[in-house]
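Q: Hi! First time doing this. I have a protein sequence and I read that you can turn it into a structure. Is that right? Here it is:
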Amino acid sequence: MEERKKLAFKLCLEAREILLRKFNDVRNIAEKSANDYVTDADLKIEKYLIDSISAKFKQDTIISEEKGTLKGNTEFKWIIDPLDGTNNYLRGISLAGMQMAILKDEKPLFGILLDPFMNEIYYAEKGKGAFKTDIHLKRKIKIQVSDRCLGNAMVVFSSSLTNDKGEEQIKVLKEILPLIGSMRMFGVAIRCFPFIAQGSTEAIISFIPKSYDITAGSLLVEEAGGKVTTFDGKPWFPDMPNLVASNSKIHNELVGILKKTWKNQ
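A: Yes, that's right. Below is the predicted 3D structure, encoded as structure tokens:
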């Protein structure tokens, strides 16, 4: 596991160089589905990550956004998102990055998230806490969630509101808005989860999560003292149908609202 962690940090630094170099020079843009894009930057970073992991750990399973699953035969699995926030990135909005998680026997043990524009790496290891590193200053600090209550909470709403469940999601949003301090939509997991983990925001609500978007971040929040579950309050896992992550203090209140409102849609 230690060797895998070392490789994950190395890959973050290499991915950062590619992301910064390609920013404002995105080419070969393809639309996978409505408003869901892939670029040459996604594919270049993904190839580099997969090739690097496969070269050192040949039999590990790798799950990636564009390539899907490359099946191995060890107990280790990598879940990677080579470019989180592609829509932001291709528009020249510097809210994008890379993330990956390492699982053993299907249990997430390590997660790492890169923000190349802020020169920050966030990471967590099961049972060992959550941390933030400044790449330039080479300074590491331990992070933890806030203790704000629901009335003062800033909640992140993770949805484009343009899918076939958009109207139902808006109904949920209307139920929650009067009860919280404020709401934000960032459109990128590599900022949403760290914001909770470091106490800047209090929760994220995601209606259609994908394993490569949430696994590293969910572990980060949990190790920072937060809580992550489904809308029903069940324990989180990479392929969960929906997700609410919070500072823990407001979690039961949010779950109560979501359990009642979402099931009624």
